[in-house]
Structure formats: C-alpha cells, structure tokens
Design goal:
- The complex is a heterotrimer.
- Chain A is an alpha+beta fold.
- In chain A, about 30% of the residues lie in helices and about 25% in strands.
- Chain A has three domains: about 170 residues, Aldehyde Oxidoreductase, domain 4, CATH 3.30.365.10; about 270 residues, Aldehyde Oxidoreductase, domain 4; about 160 residues, Aldehyde Oxidoreductase, domain 4 (2-Layer Sandwich).
- Chain A contains 21 helices and 26 strands.
- In chain A, helix 11 runs parallel beside helix 20.
- Chain B is of the alpha+beta class.
- A five-stranded mixed beta sheet of chain B has the order 2-1-5-3-4, with helices on both faces.
- In chain B, helix 2 packs across helix 5.
- The N and C termini of chain B lie far apart (about 55 Å).
- By secondary structure, chain C is of the alpha+beta class.
- Chain C contains two helices and five strands.
- In chain C, strand 3 and strand 4 form a beta hairpin.
- Chain C is globular, with a radius of gyration of 12 Å.
- Classes of the chains: A alpha+beta, B alpha+beta, C alpha+beta.
- Chains in contact: A-B, A-C.
- At the A-C interface, strand 7 and helix 10 of A face helix 2, strand 4 and strand 5 of C.
Amino acid sequence: MPLDNPSANTRKYKLVGTRPDRQDGFDKVTGRAKFGADAVAPGQLAGSILRSPHAHARIRSIDTSKAEKLAGVKAVVTRADFPDKTAGDSGLFDILTNIMARDKALYEGHAVAAVAAVSPAVAKQALKLIKVDYEVLPHVTDVDEAMKPTAPVLHPKLFTEGLAEKPKKPSNIARRYEFGHGDVEAGFAKADIIVERSFKTEATHQGYIEPHACLANVSPDGSGELWVCTQGHFMVRDYCARLLGLEISKLRVTASEIGGGFGGKTTVFLEPVALALSRKANRPVKLVMSRDEVFKCTGPTSSASIDVKIGVTKDGLITAADATLRYQGGAFPGSPAEFGAMSAFAQYHLDNVRTIAYDVVTNRPKQAAYRAPGAPMANFAVESMIEELAHKLGMAPIDFRIKNAAREGTRSSYGPVYGPIGLLATLEEARKHPHFKAPLGPNQGRGMAAGFWFNFGGQSCVSLNIPVDGTVTISVGSPDIGGSRASMCLMTAEELGIPYEHVRAIIADTSSLGYNDVTDGSRTTFATGMACILAARDAIKKLCQRAARMWGIPEEAVTWEKGYAKPAGANAGNFPPLSLKEIAAASGGTGGPIAGHHEYSADGAGVSFATHICDVEVDPETGATRIVRYTVLQDAGKAVHPSYVEGQFQGGAVQGIGWALNEEYVYGKDGRLQNAGFLDYRIPVCSDLPMIDTKILEIPNPGHPYGVRGVGETSIVPPLAAVANAVSNAVGVRMTELPISPPRLLKALDTVSLAKAS
Amino acid sequence: MSGIHVTTKINGDEVQFVCEADESLLDVLRNRLGLTGAKEGCGTGDCGACSVTVDGRLTCSCLVLGAEVDGHDIGTIEGMAMGDELHPLQKKFIEHAALQCGICTPGFLVAAKALLDHNPEPTETEIRFGLAGNLCRCTGYDKIVRAVQAAAEEMNSAKKIQQKVA
Amino acid sequence: MAKVTVWGSLRSQTGGQATVEIEARNVMELLARLGESYPGLQPTLKRGVSVSIDGLIYREGWLQPLQPETEVYLLPRMTGG
C-alpha cells in the first residue's frame, strides 16, 4: 500500500458512481432497524448513573449502603469497583477516570456511582440514597482563564509538555505544539499590509440524535457480551477489556445500528460501567443516557481562542502567516489543538509560516472528536482574515485565494510537500459557479472559504462469502453511519462483475472478524471499501481455481472477466465461460465453500480540500441571520454512491452553519451547563435552511484502486468562515466570535452605528 | 405501585396494557409493547424522533402519558406500510437517500405523512416548517425535503388518475 | 541515512535541530532509533505518531522502506471524527 493504480483515471465503471437503493433502507423506514436502546435481554436490569452536581470537587467519601439495601437494587458500583489496570498508559487512565470519578469530580455531570435495579424507577430512587461527601473546589471553564497563573489547577501532576524546559509548577496547559517553516519575522518585514486579529469559538456538541446506549451481559465465567451504538465496536471491546481486566477474546461486542456519531462515539462512556454492573449483579444490564447526560457528560468539541497575523504585498502575495491557538478540551488533555495548528494555513502556499497551539484543560466534559477535529475553528480564524485582507487589497476574495492557494509541490504549513491536490480545482469551479454571479438583495451578503482536512486509512478486515446460489455476503467491521454498506456492496459487485442486488453487507461482531479501526477519519469507504475490493480479488482467485478444476486445466490458464471465468487464450482450451453462479453451485464438490478475505492497514488516504460559498440575509431589527443560498464544492476522488457523498457534503455544511450561527455551550458562573437540551442548544432545523447545493469533483486518489478519497469530514471545515464572512460582508463589521447569535450580532451592529454617530 | 389499565387502538389493532401513572406513551410503546420504531432522542419534545399520531394528530409520544391514550387511536411508524407495500414516503426516502444514520427517519416519516394528510400539495416552505419539529443531524434536510416533494407529487398524480378513472 | 524533520515544539528534544539524520531501513527502525538517540522524544513516540514519507501520511506504516533521499516528517498521530 498504497496501491498504485494509474488506470483509475480511465476505468469505466458499471456500478460505482450509480445511485441504487441502500439495502438497510427497508428496516430503517419501517422502524424495524435496531439501534442502541432497542435491544432487550431476558431478565435485564435497568442501570442509572449518579453524576456530580459540581464543576470541581474533591470526593471525600461515597456511602452506598442505603441504596444497596433498597428492594430491587441488584448492584451498585463506584470508583472502588474500577481499580487501576491501565499499567502506566496515561490516555487509558484518563478514560478510566472519565467514566467514573476517582479522587475528584472534574466537571458537572462527572459519573460518581451507578446502580442496576429491577426498573428505571427503582434505579433512580436508589441514586437518591447514595451519599457523596464533596469538598467543592474553585473551577474554571474558559480557555483563556484556565491558562492564567492564578487559575485553579485541575491536575497537580500536569506539567506542560513541549516547552524548552520542564516547567517548575503544574498548570492547566497540557501541551504546547509548534509547526511551520521559514522565518515569519523576515516575512512580515517584506509585507506591505499586515492584519492581526483575535477570534473566539464556543464549544459545540456533535448532536447525534441517538443518545448513547448499551446492553451488557457478563457471565460468572468472565465471558461477556455487549450490544452498543458506537463508531467502533472493536475499540469498545479493547478499552472495556483493558479497563475491567477481561480477556479481549472473551468479550464479544456487537455494534447496533448507530444513530449518528460525528466523532462523538469514538470512545467509551457507559460501556465499562454497564459491564461492571452486570458482572456484579450477574444479570444483563441496560444503560441509556438521557439527552441531558449526552450534553453534560459526553464529549463536545473544544472551544477555542485564536490570534492570527498575516502579511501581504501590495499585489496580493502572502509573505508571512502566524497563528496562536488555544483549545480547551475539557477535564483531560487531548484537545485537537495540534490539528488546528496543522490545518490552519494548510490551504495556502507559504514561504514563512508558524503556528503555535496550546492544549488546555478546564472543568468541562472531556472533549471527543468532532468531524475534522480541531480544523473548523482554525479555518474560521484564518479564512476570516483572508477575506479581510482581500478587501484591504481591493482584490476579489476568490482571486486572492487562488493566487496564494497550495498546489502540487507546495510545502504544507505542517511540513510535508503536497503531491497532486484538488484545492485549485474547487476554487476554479467555485469561480465558474452560477452562485458566484447571482445578485444579492438588501441586507444580504456573500462569503466563501476554502478548507482542508487530512483523512486517514487505518486497519480493516473484511470477509466475503459466496453461498451456492451465487449471491455474496460481505462481513465488515466498520459501523455504517451514513450508508457505507451500500458503497461496500457497490465496490464488491463492481469487482466481481455481478449485480449490486446480489451482494449484501453486514457489520460483523468482534468475535467474527479481525480488528477494525473506528469509523472515523473519513476512512470507511476508503479503507474498508478497499478491503472489500481486495477481498473480492481474493475470491476471484479462488473462483478461477475452481473453474480450472471444473475444466481440468491449470489455474493460471483462467481469467476473470465481468462475472465469468474464462479460459485465457487458445492454449487453455475451448470452454464456454463459467458464471460466478455456476462455479458457486458446484463449490461443494470442487473444494468446499468459496470465500475471500482481506486484512491490512490502509495508508495513502490523501488529503482533502473543499470550497464553500454562502449567502446570508441579516435582519437588522432582530439580529437574526438566515442562510439564503449555500454551495459546497469538494473533491471526492471518485464518488462511489454520489447521493451519499452529497449527503456528507450537505450534512457537514449544515453542522458548520449551526456552529457559526446558533450552537454553543453556555456556562453559568457556577460552572454548570445552562443549556443541556435541544430547546436551548439549538441545532439547525429544516425551516432554517435552503437546499444545500453540491458539486462533486473527481480527482482520483492514487492511493485507492478506484481513486476514492474520504469525504466525511472536510465539509464541516469551511462553513464557519463562509457564514461569518457572508454576515460580515452583509453588515460591514468583521464578526470575530462564534456563534453569531442574534444578541452578538445586534451588539456588533450597535457598535458600528455608535461609531458612525460619533 | 398500582398499574393503570388502558385500552387503545394502535395502527388499527385493539391493544390493552397496564402502565404506571408517570410512564410516557413512548415508554409504553417501546418497553411494554415492543414497538421500538419511535425513538427517544430527547424526552422533552424537542427532537421529534418519537413522533406518533394520536387521533390523526402529530404528537411527540414522549410528552403524552400512557394513561392518557385510553380510548384513542395511535398511529406509529410500524403501521405506515400497507402490507408488503411501502408508503410512497417510505419509498421516496430510500430512493432520495433522505436518511443517513436513520435514527430520525421514523419520526420524519410520521410527521411528513401527517403533513401530507392535511396539506397534500405543500410548497417547499410549508414542508420545511411542517418538519421543523423533527431534528436530523446527518442530512442537512435537503434530501428529506426532496423526498417529501417527490412523494407528494406521486401521491397526487395517483389520486388524479383515480379521479379520472372514477 | 534518512532525514527526519520533527515539528517545532519537539526541537528542544533534538538539540534545537529541525532535521536529524537517522540510519534506518524502514519506519519501525526509524522510530526506534529516534527514541534511542533523543530520549526526550520518548513520551511523544509512546503516545503515537504518524509519519509523512515523501508527502504521503502513514499512521501504521511501520514497514514502509526508507531511501536516503526520502523526506520524512514526524507528525502527531492522526485521528478523526
């Protein structure tokens, strides 16, 4: 790997690129599909979790005796039931500490104890009987406040990494990162115009509609089963086994249908607790989060505070770019600050660039990945400045972007030199798009932004089986969040040369397949899809072997073409082609069942770029912003099922629109989340939006046999800046803080009118 | 604990159940009757994933008590297809890729059917406001709106043909 | 000898050098020798890294061969949503 496949450019596909119905559609439109909370086990108990009401508190003691005595309570667990088995792995220890508080509660909602009882009502009653003695400590929730030397320190053993010298005192700054090349000071000295600004973005939640849920069943012999909605059931298995001291092979995890993840279901929260309760009660235990718990106790993304400085010459060449990014990632290290720093300027060709990032801890829930983690906030800051510089230069923002765009041979802001990339293609296509020339009405503004994301490959394992009727099943280990099973079937059918309808994909449990990485990093259609193609090629080899046996000729004398085995050349003999179905029908007598397999670690995902155009209309009376028109242009390498590629573009864009306009975690002075519900944490609804126009570009990725590139994440990167630029252009004030909620916009408008009046 | 006995009709069939006074209709459907098509996304009436109809009226089943539906007609996603024939909305949702993860889909379908029952020829704006009580985080709503438009068109042209025949 | 460039904040662990030369035939050897030569890099290496080889990013590519002229960049371990 990567597969070098020059034919990807010219290959004509029969199925890849078409839009057949997804096969799991029937179950999903009839209510039959089983999600996390839909499973039932005989004799199951209801679990419930007691959570800290305080943002920061020492836990002096926990008394569960009264709860244990309540009729119907079968198990109670606390920190005492989760001994440290992490063997010095600090990341795993943080997960352990996050699923059940140890010496301190580090945020409002931090789990402190859990109960399993005969009904949810009894479990809730039992929680009220647990007495926790808290010593409330000072807290901090804002990233800039948390970095001050006077801030309350969350972890007395946390010393900043990445400094020239180890600091003498602990602080909330976990790590410092620096990237870049050239000499930014020299670059600024060459600039005619330098602009410098600070930006802030609020934490947003992935907002999947399905709350976390699982059903655990541990037997006295130490074997266990877990049903769970997750982006990666192998990840869940490995974490749970390590945290609880179970043998990995004895824990069988089945991924339910998953009701959205967007990065938020790439770790464990409930699962080890459910297993611990089940082990103690010796009964199946179901744990389901409420929406309130999802907001308070699972991972939103980081909030950020970013300074950007860019210098340009009069004729519009960027001479230097510098940014400092501060991301708080909640109560534990691990905010995606480094990815913000690496991606901030990745769309530009820069001789002198530097980004410095700080990963900061605060008394908020441990952040989890959210679609292109770390990139959208950095892109908002940088693309806002690019727009402002273009105005200052009197250049069209798109021309300024094209002039400075990264291209093949550009040294990226994070180090390596780019190979062929699709950024210019998206920018040029944007310039040609009718959206760009459409007239704007009163109070309307247009903005644009270009964005970048890495994508990766990762580990995949696929098994393919061919029953005697010549249909095909593929077992994959990547949970399907957005229709990936349809893409897997398309690629498998394409490779085998059989109809799409003859292939069926299932998500196999952890005992049926080798390890598969989580469905994240835009990897599934790329990496697991490539594993399907290679498993199909493995099966083809065997199909040819069987045909050879049926004909009594050597294997090498058989080729595979469009679903048929054929003798290769005149010397092989003159046999009529054998279809996959005919070979399958005879399989019992020619060597047994026919299967294909592939396991590997896929690399060569290739980086991804997108350009977004956005029109808004601002109501100067109310401060409300309405999206009037929106267009996404993105390189997909090769769109396997274009409808679901468009869906990724549209969904990512709308999540970004929500981030830009409405969504934010609002904390009170008491360190408690003020808006832990969909009424007050307002994600975009249908009536907020227009249709989201999409343009799929196909610049083949040389790292995939069909040229496929991951598409899931990049679409959330440009919208923050595209929307903010559109609003800024509509009202004539640069909006530097997200979300641009009505109160914030009215305040900005007031400042302008006051300035004008004076 | 003393249960409340309730007699109701669900998707046309008479159903009896016993529930607690504080149990929502959603809990009854999911936990007592095995009808898990309605989903709990929030429990506070904000997301619409639990949408059902009560006497034809679109309702969040998480906001209604099980005890309240005695003598009423409940419609859920499980009753939407006609035998082995999917409802046009169900077909169009699949055809138009109007679902990604699918958790919100049952609620959207119930809401869209309620909309078309009351307004068979809605404009795009009417569809968008008609479905504003249902949250979808995957699709950006574009393909959902298109699927509802396509279903409405198909249902209306089928109706016109029927009228002509009659 | 492969030339490896480390990101800015790791330079304090490589005596201020942006690029260091390591004798290695593949990524696995490279990471092992990098840790031996610059023990200050150990915590970062232990947490996991990605490497870019001639512009292509590898997260698990331990066996990727390295040529003397190969441009290698050490990068934080890629994650995604």
